[in-house]
Amino acid sequence: MSVFLDTSYLYACITVRDQWHRLALAAPWPVPGGVTSSLIVNETVTLLQTRGFFSRSLEFLQSIRDDTKSRSSYADTELQQKGWNLLWSNGGSGANAVDCTSFALMKQRRIRLAYTFDKHFHQAGFQTLLPDSSL
After folding, report:
1. Structural contact between residues 97 and 110, judged by C-beta atoms closer than 8 angstroms
2. What integer pLDDT is reported at residue 135 of this predicted model?
3. Which ranges of 26-53 would DSSP assign to H, the alpha helix?
4. Where are the domains of the chain?
5. How distant, in Å, are the alpha carbons of 70, 81, 113 from that of 9?
6. Looking at the predicted structure, is the pLDDT value of residue 61 above 90?
7. What pLDDT is stored for residue 33 in this prediction?
8. With CB atoms counted within 10 Å of each terminal CB, which end of the chain scores lower, N or C?
């Protein structure tokens, strides 16, 4: 079974002070069969760097590149177009363009579970790591 790895999960795994850190570690990364995208990797690196964790961002980038258990996909023109199209129906709830491209990738690969703490994935119909009280 494939699992989509989102920025909120990856960041929570890395950042001890993140509110979801303990829950993220309960579903640890690297994840066998994990799928993410270059957009998510870029978003995670940028988030770490802008929050003052430049060294961690480089360590994360290296670990993703070395990870043999999960795969990073690159959005081609068709997938990106599908993601942008999903923004019309999901953007009003707060999902951003990267989220919507992730939704398109998950639909394309028939992935139902996202390791994420982003409620927009649940709103889009995917299973997440969020406890029911956080939805």
Report:
1. no
2. 57
3. 38-50
4. 3-74+111-128
5. 14, 25, 12
6. yes
7. 85
8. N
CB 66 within 8 A of CB 16: no
CA distance 89 to 25: 32
User: What span, in angstroms and rounded, lies between the C-alpha atoms of 87 and 81?
Assistant: 10
Facing residues of 49 across strands? none
Cβ atoms of 55 and 44 closer than 8 Å: no
3-74+111-128: CATH superfamily: 5'-nuclease (3.40.50.1010)
Q: pTM of the full predicted structure?
A: 0.92
Alpha helices in the chain (DSSP H): 7-14, 21-25, 38-50, 54-66, 77-90, 97-109, 119-123
Instruction: Say if strands 34-37 and 3-5 run parallel, antiparallel, or are unpaired.
Output: parallel
- Give the CA radius of gyration of the chain: 14
